[in-house]
């Protein structure tokens, strides 16, 4: 008779399944940078084989280069040596883009009786401090500590409901982590920034988990502060969970050039209005960095929709001698930024709306109003779109349905009120009107309260 164990479930397999290998580095990267789990190599039940010298980039997020290291398990001195050489080589790089900007040291959130730091982790902390590379300690799988506290509470009183125990378990877990770090004598955790995260689906709701990831983006951004200011917009573009950082940096970048003195800005001279709008749009999109495989946000269709919002504010068209016949409009539409090409070609009739868009940029109040409305509408629509994608699993590609629905909701909801607010913010005798528009955008995004530095830091 053959010996079979299959009718009795394996205890070892059950235990292994309950303690998945890996601290959750790849899962974290997938969530924050919106890269599919397959691409980041999330491993279930076996160790990931990471080579720190390999650059991970993703078509869904081209602004980001990740170097993933294997864990520093006890005794794996070889691995630490590889990581150390890599860090030192990166420090010698001259160009900002080739340097190492920050290290996330991912540690499993300590539980009762578990280890906090391996020797390799301590080496890394010391080396990074010596070389002045910002390190953020990320305590992963925080849900496991929460569950430990929850189970202890439940064991004390089995009658109590989840809703009652949950906030107490949260407080206990947070206190336990702080206490553990405070008591730890081999390393002073108050000398580094840290944050706790959980990407496990069973912990909190989507919003609760996102709050933790957003906090990590704030902590990271604060650390980058100490290195070089040029990193901020790159960071804002690369991270894919914190909408306010994106809003803030697209405004900051806008004010360096294209959002300034919109009715008088000489950089726009000799360009058609649609080109000016396309430049504004593309710069804003660079910061949002959507995963837009079908290029929906630079499509004619989306461009036309955005034009619909501003058409009542378009300045009177000027007809120039070199640019008046229908065929000119159509060919220019195809050749430059074909936002209105569709409308022009399909309508076979040049509306004043199309003419204004294809006219050269004209200095003056009406051009300024039109561009202010455009910037406000576009930013707020992209903000809604971003929030709508956040509930999806990485790589969160945007779809035509999502774009249509977002635009439709804005059109039927906020658009006319916001247009009035934009005009109101400018007033009759405008003083710094562009700043007022930026404030209005921030006000809308925070749901009607003052924007504070915690919103983007
Ligand atoms: N409970 C829980 N499990 C998680 C969490 N994050 C990741 N995991 C699980 O932990 C296992 C390992 O996750 P990975 O993201 O591959 O971890 P890693 O650090 O990249 O692992 P290596 O590449 O092997 O070093 C997978 O089964 C994940 O589903 C978390 O926040 N909570
Ligand atoms: Mg991994």
TrEMBL record:
InterPro entries, per the entry: P-loop_NTPase
Domain of life: Eukaryota
SUPFAM superfamilies associated with the record: P-loop containing nucleoside triphosphate hydrolases
Protein name from the UniProt record: G domain-containing protein
